[in-house]
From TrEMBL:
Plays an essential role in the initiation and regulation of chromosomal replication. ATP-DnaA binds to the origin of replication (oriC) to initiate formation of the DNA replication initiation complex once per cell cycle. Binds the DnaA box (a 9 base pair repeat at the origin) and separates the double-stranded (ds)DNA. Forms a right-handed helical filament on oriC DNA; dsDNA binds to the exterior of the filament while single-stranded (ss)DNA is stabiized in the filament's interior. Domain I is involved in oligomerization and binding regulators, domain II is flexibile and of varying length in different bacteria, domain III forms the AAA+ region, while domain IV binds dsDNA. NCBIfam families: DnaA (TIGR00362). The keyword Methyltransferase does not apply. Belongs to the DnaA family. Residues 357-476 are annotated as: Domain IV, binds dsDNA. The lineage of its organism: Bacteria, Pseudomonadati, Pseudomonadota, Alphaproteobacteria, Sphingomonadales. CDD domains: AAA, Bac_DnaA_C. This is Chromosomal replication initiator protein DnaA. Keywords: ATP-binding, Cytoplasm, DNA replication, DNA-binding, Lipid-binding, Nucleotide-binding. Residues 384-453 form the Chromosomal replication initiator DnaA C-terminal domain.
Amino acid sequence: MVSGRVSNLSETEAVANEDIISADLETIWQKICAGLRRDLGAQIFGQWIKPIKLSVFDSNNGTMLLILPSEFSANWVRDRYSERLLMAWKAYHPAVSELVFQAQSGSAKIAQISKSSAANDSAVNSRQNVFPESKFRLDLDPRMTFDLFIAGNSNILALNAAQRTAAAEKPLFCPLYLQSSTGQGKTHLMHAIGHAFREEFPTSKIIYMSAERFMIEFVSAMRRNEGMEFKASLREADLLMIDDIQFIVGKNSTQEEFLHTVDSLISQGKRVVVAADRPPQALDGVDQRLLSRLSMGLVADIQSAGLELRRDILKHRLASMPHQHVSEEVVEFLARTISRNLRELEGGLNKLLAYSQLTGREISRELAEEQLSDILSACRRRITIDEIQRTVCEYYRLDRNEMSSKRRARAVARPRQVAMYLAKVMTPRSYPEIGRKFGGRDHSTVIHAVKLVEHLRGEDSEMDNDVRMLLRQLES
């Protein structure tokens, strides 16, 4: 279990407690860090994981305290990396069963933490459908509900199927198989199913976990001679949800247990949801019987989010924070540039918001390019200004030399301004750099062109259609 509690802690007081971090645990932590540095990349690791300090381990209840510099960073790491960190700890040191993320300042003692942990466990047991005889805890993110899921053409089938799975009426299909590439909304839908199903059936038993956790818990139960208890707990579920099922392939004993669990639940009329980054037929090394079960329900594919959906997600996120001002230019820039997955898109916006709050700097296009350089460089297709000029000239049937000419006739100047606008929206080039590519024009000329085209798009439907057509051609 990963604790959702983040509070303040004095390191001096922590060190005074009985169960101090041993040298062995420090060694394990260094190994975990080495793996995370490799998986997450040096920049993300350095910003969020490297500042973590081990504080206290309570061997009585398996609680590990991790200390971060601020409450903001503690919340950030807990929300995004808690399960990955817990799985890594359990792989090296099975006695670790809970992580608590805390900020540096303030005071708290391990006895207090143990006590509050036990109280919290009791509260969650009564509130979140925990199996008393097992370690399964329904740890749903309150931000991942159907109300907060933004629908678009790419995900509407999966959304409708997820809502039917959580409804009071028995679904027409089981299991529901959600399939998409990373960061397109599979996990959000699974959490939303859990929230809605619990609201519809308050006394129901729900299990949600990753395939990696399923595998670790199964192996641990077998080693403790608790295999029968583990199986019984799974098969008492009214709703079983397993995320990232692709990681269960190749593990024969785990596949066998999962197959029997799915068969048992389906025969009882219970509900099963699985998610993966590929369709069932593409799961290498999967038992054919399990493949048949996974394919027998509904396979709902979530396509990559289009520009309109990415734009809607950003605007919806900002609508919930009216005190935060982000210009239309920045929203458009992020929506167009961060296109690989929605997790990166929201993560990029969150980073800008956090940076602005902590430094007082206004969120601008320049700040976005500066702070999100790693994400942008990975996502951006290298469109050049030359390519933009050529495409614009073909669209408006102009000679290419007109992009650099001094002619001010509207038939020439307006396409040139559109090309300048597209160069600013679609490339990382600065205003002076763009000006030089358009016959050595001053940066103020480029700024004027960008603002004018932005204004005209809102006033002139023909202009907006021209720009949309050009954007589509250049992005294809």
